[in-house]
Write a structure and sequence with these properties.
The complex is a heterodimer of chains A (407) and B (130). With 407 residues, chain A is mostly helical. Chain A is built from 23 helices and one strand. The relative contact order of chain A is 0.17. The chains are: A mainly alpha (407), B mainly alpha (130). The interface between A and B is large, with 65 and 58 residues.
């Protein structure tokens, strides 16, 4: 009998130890809340198809890092304050000894963000996919891309006023650029502790461009303005297409050196495409490389949204400021579009101004859709692509300015 | 030159300090907003001027590699399909050409906003009698 009792006790102890070491016993309420948030994002990605290519890996990464006892990701190894406590010098990027000895898979993959590798590689792919033809055919559209960056700086101002540090404000403001990789690139440098919230806000709002922009487009333009049909774009020579990426890289690098990484990779990708002699490289940059990096970027950015770092009042503030940044950017582009409408005596449809926030090609599609509501014979898509791709350059330049002034 | 100006601003303006009062925060925020928007506008305006100058320079001489911008490019980039009507033995070649010309003119007239608007880039790939 004693033997049986001993066996039962041993069995019970083993079960108790198993339970104590399981995720169920160690699950905290805040972690459970984060897992539920990740389910919501998964729903939005899969069912509502909101930017699924990024939102799905982000949501899954969020779920992975919040499952207790998994040890797949340790945000504290990348937290500047915690690193100092561990005995590293101030300014050390991450607790490299701990990452290499105790780090999980996502800790290692996260180095691609921490070291600033993934966002420029995404830009390389974007460059390989982007046709700057509409921009070259109508260079004035670059100004619309610049005006739409107003949102970045106004959001910076508001973020300062609600109590964020200048660096955090800069990282939050960049959400207004509607450009995920740029937002991540700036946030990982200026405010790594806010990276998760900023990335989730940036990608969520990018997906919500068709919801956020149209009311302001209708509010700020008359039906007559929206119905404006623009003249067909002029043909663009191959020489122009080839010189453009080289010249832009040099110009931007010489003026704002901190923008070189993003703009340089964007233009390299575009030069590969336009040169017409690197077909295999273009295919790789625009497809395989881009897709691989997107998975790594999405899942690791999602992983940074751990309960300790995400469930804070600051996250709610970031989400609020992010939507304002988008709205300000849209308004900035629209107002300059209206000015152009007046100056050109009705030859420019102001709706293309709202496409100046990057969000390629979603914002251009929204301009097309709202334009067609006013005039079914209106085809604004390619005209809006000019400011749209200009917005990519504009947000990269704005990121360079923020990095230059705040890092 | 621009870099020198930027450097001066960076060195003189304590951007990275935490400001306690709302007035200070407003001042630094408004300054940054004006400065940031101006610099982005300036840089993109310079690029815009450069593109305009470049296109004038290039288009001054006959260019062999001219491609229409945007969607027209994708259409023209496709292998040049012969403009052909669907097989109809009754149609003479001259009639086909005339028909295609009329249809092209009709599409151009329908889609062009003004008589001056270019219709270059239209490619009629197939005309079929229904």
């Amino acid at each position: 009998l004693e033997t049986i009792i001993t066996i039962i006790n041993a069995f019970g102890n083993t079960l108790a130890n198993l339970w104590a070491g399981s995720g169920f016993a160690n699950m905290r309420l805040d972690q459970l809340a984060m897992i539920l948030i990740s389910f919501l994002l998964l729903y939005l990605a899969i069912v509502k198809k909101f930017e699924p290519l990024l939102l799905l890996p982000i949501a899954f990464g969020m779920m992975l890092s919040n499952l207790p006892m998994g040890a797949i990701f340790h945000m504290e190894f990348f937290d500047p304050e915690h690193i100092t406590v561990l005995g590293y010098e101030k300014g050390t990027l991450f607790a490299w000894k701990e990452v290499l000895s105790k780090g999980g898979l996502l800790d290692l993959l996260y180095l691609g963000i921490k070291l600033g590798i993934y966002p420029p590689l995404i830009f390389l792919g974007i460059g390989a996919m982007t046709d700057f033809g509409p921009l070259l055919a109508n260079p004035r559209s670059l100004l619309l891309g610049a005006a739409a960056q107003l949102g970045i700086f106004l959001a910076f101002l508001l973020a300062l006023l609600v109590g964020f540090t200048p660096q955090q404000a800069g990282a939050i403001g960049i959400i207004g650029g509607a450009d995920g990789p740029t937002a991540i690139f700036v946030a990982k440098t200026l405010a790594p502790e806010l990276l998760g919230a900023i990335a989730v806000a940036a990608y969520s709002y990018m997906a919500l461009v068709p919801v956020i922009q149209p009311p302001f487009m209708r509010l700020l333009t008359t039906r007559k303005e929206r119905a404006t049909v623009m003249a067909q774009l002029r043909p663009v020579s191959r020489t122009e297409r080839i010189i453009f990426p080289i010249a832009v890289t040099m110009l931007v690098a010489l003026i704002i050196p901190d923008a070189l990484t993003l703009v340089g990779m964007l233009m390299l990708g575009n030069l590969l495409k336009e040169s017409g002699v690197c077909e295999r490289l273009v295919k790789t940059a625009a497809n395989e490389l881009m897709n691989i990096v997107t998975i790594f970027l999405g899942v690791t950015v999602g992983a940074t949204a751990t309960a300790e770092y995400f469930l804070r009042i600051s996250t709610l503030k970031i989400i609020g400021l992010g939507v304002l940044a988008f709205i300000f950017g849209t308004i900035g582009g629209l107002l300059l579009g209206k000015l152009m409408y007046v100056l050109t005596k009705g030859k420019v449809n102001p709706l293309i101004g709202s496409a100046g926030v990057s969000a390629v090609p979603m914002a251009a599609r929204v301009s097309q859709k709202v334009g067609q509501e006013a005039n079914p014979a209106n085809f604004l898509l390619m005209h809006a692509m000019g400011p749209n791709v200009a917005g990519v350059i504009g947000s990269a330049v704005a990121a360079g300015i923020l990095l230059m002034l705040l890092k | 030159m621009m870099e020198v100006i930027m450097y001066t601003i960076v060195c003189n303006a304590p951007w990275t300090e935490n400001y306690a009062t709302v007035t200070e925060q407003l001042f630094i925020g408004v300054t940054m907003t004006l400065l940031g928007v101006s610099i982005v506008l300036l840089i993109l305006a310079v690029i815009s001027l450069f593109i305009s100058a470049l296109s004038r320079l290039i288009n001054r001489r006959p260019d062999r590699g001219v491609q229409p911008a945007g969607p027209v490019e994708s259409a023209s980039a496709l292998p040049a399909a012969p403009i052909a009507a669907s097989p109809d033995p009754d149609d003479a070649a001259g009639e086909q050409e005339a028909l295609i010309a009329v249809i092209t003119a009709a599409i151009a007239a329908f889609s062009a906003d003004s008589p001056r608007q270019s219709t270059a880039g239209f490619v009629i790939r197939r005309v079929r009698r229904v």
